């Protein structure tokens, strides 16, 4: 778990945000790991929980019910919100090839899982947003690789509220259409396998190490935080790259 204190323009009262991303439930991650992450998150007593995508692993061979039961235990008075990641789409059957056979019914599967998440108290934001309070807006963007990301739609309705934008893939950061108060991202896993001096040999980003992890900047100088995430992809290994639940302690300027 990491803690980060930051001022957020437009905020009128403090806001604590727990950011969990890249759970990758399925291939290497089971319900026990998710349960431990949920317990750790609840102990932080956040105002809101944000899930940054890749809740599912595309090659999963387990039922989704254990994941849903654990996510239902997350506690946050202002709600629980999620966005889709590329592995979510792979699990729906949208991606094809790299993630397995493409399915004609992938859209129906996506909507069915969104409804299942809603039953667990998690609202999926796909190019849309919600007012958490009178002074803060959270927007969620569809996946960059397999969805149809629309950042303006995610921020429509924000008005003069402080904005927190959830984007799975940080490669969208240079394409922000305007300044954002705060952007949170996942996808990269921090490279997942890192080495002294050289960092991560492989980062799934067209920008290499630029958006691998930590605090970065998007277009218009927008501050963004890229989490190392929680699960694993590709290989069941992390090296010098610990899993991360990020607690963002946001305050008025």
Automatic annotation (TrEMBL):
Residues 16-190 form the Calcineurin-like phosphoesterase domain. Keywords: Hydrolase, Metal-binding. It comes from Deinococcus radiotolerans. It comes from the Bacteria. Pfam families: Metallophos. Coiled coil: none annotated. This is Metallophosphoesterase. InterPro entries: Calcineurin-like_PHP, Metallo-depent_PP-like, Metallophosphoesterase_sf. PANTHER family: PHOSPHODIESTERASE YAEI (PTHR31302:SF31), TRANSMEMBRANE PROTEIN WITH METALLOPHOSPHOESTERASE DOMAIN-RELATED (PTHR31302).
């Amino acid at each position: 778990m990491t803690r980060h204190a930051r001022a957020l323009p437009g905020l009128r009262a403090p806001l604590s945000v727990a950011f969990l991303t890249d759970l990758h439930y399925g291939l290497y991650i089971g319900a026990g790991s998710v349960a431990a992450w949920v317990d750790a998150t609840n102990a932080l007593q956040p105002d809101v929980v944000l899930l940054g995508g890749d809740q599912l692993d595309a090659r999963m061979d387990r039922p989704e019910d254990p994941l849903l039961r654990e996510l239902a235990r997350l506690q946050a008075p202002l709600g629980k919100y999620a966005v889709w990641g590329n592995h979510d789409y792979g699990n729906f059957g949208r991606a094809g090839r790299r993630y397995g056979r493409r399915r004609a019914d992938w859209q129906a599967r996506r909507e069915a899982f969104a409804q299942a998440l809603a039953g667990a108290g998690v609202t999926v934001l796909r190019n849309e947003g919600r007012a958490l309070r009178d002074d803060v807006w959270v927007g969620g963007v569809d996946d960059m690789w397999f969805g149809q990301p629309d950042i303006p739609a995610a921020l429509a309705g924000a008005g003069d509220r402080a904005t927190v934008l959830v984007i799975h893939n940080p490669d969208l950061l240079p394409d922000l259409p305007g300044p954002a108060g705060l952007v949170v991202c996942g996808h990269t896993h921090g490279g997942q396998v890192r080495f002294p001096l050289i960092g991560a040999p492989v980062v799934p980003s067209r920008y290499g190490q630029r958006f691998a992890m930590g605090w970065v900047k998007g277009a218009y100088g927008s501050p963004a935080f890229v989490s190392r995430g929680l699960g694993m992809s590709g290989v069941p290994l992390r090296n010098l790259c610990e899993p991360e639940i990020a607690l963002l302690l946001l305050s008025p300027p």
